Amino acid sequence: MRAALAYIYQGDELGQDTLSIMDTLQKLDPTNYQSPITNYPDTEFGLALKQTAMLIKAEVGLEVSAIDLGGWDTHFTQGSTTGLMPNLMKDLAEGLAAFHADMADHMNKLTTVTMSEFGRRAYENGSLGTDHGHGSMMVVLGGSVDGGKVHGQWPGLEEGQLIAPGDLAVTTDYRDVLSEILVKRLNNPAVSDVFPDYQPVMRNVVKT
């Protein structure tokens, strides 16, 4: 197959570049890749971050990587200091910390966004868990991030501040943050094509 593709794309610069990237990927060994700086969590999430770091360092042209960390639908026995939720948060935190340390020399070219599909209810249910809620949070990490702070407004947990049957209120639309990253970091002004019928507000989460 490699020889056939080389024949088809001979004289085609883009095709040859693609074949060169394929050759590089074949030589990479994501399972045995070890960061000289840090250790990643021995989890699927940790392995995915480690593979992403390896591809970035190999300069194969990676522009976007999407990684899932599932299991947050904690309706039952969520836990506080031990259990499902703290274990997930530990995996997320340790994975992002390792990725940040490993990619320190690439931070100015890197923007990492962590977000959820939906939040959790503010108060515990009868099964020692939390049900689906509205407000959640996003984490943005990178060299061009206006970091070290919480962006947006805290809606509060007091009476009259929660919405619906006990949900944290949404104060920042996730499309605002993603639109800003799309424009400032990916140099793509076509926000209306990505989020039709929505006019984003630039929150100045990232710098130009």
The computed structural class is mainly alpha
Q: What portion of residues is helical?
A: 25-40%
Q: Helical segment tally? A: 6
The oligomeric state is single chain
Strand content: 5-15%
Shape: globular
Major beta sheet, strand line-up: 1-4
Low-pLDDT runs of 5+ residues are none
CA(first)-CA(last) distance: 43 Å
The pLDDT mean sits at 90
Tell me the series of helices and strands, N- to C-terminal. HHHHEEEEHH
Summarize the structure.
The protein is mainly alpha-helical and 208 residues long.
Please provide a written account of the structure.
This protein is mainly α and 208 residues long. The protein has three domains: 30 residues, no CATH class; 60 residues, no CATH class; 99 residues, no CATH class. 34% of the residues lie in helices and 6% in strands. It contains six helices and four strands. A two-stranded antiparallel sheet has the order 1-4. A two-stranded antiparallel sheet has the order 2-3. Helix 3 runs parallel beside helix 4. The protein starts with a helix and ends in a 14-residue tail after the last helix. The model has no long low-confidence stretch (mean pLDDT 90).
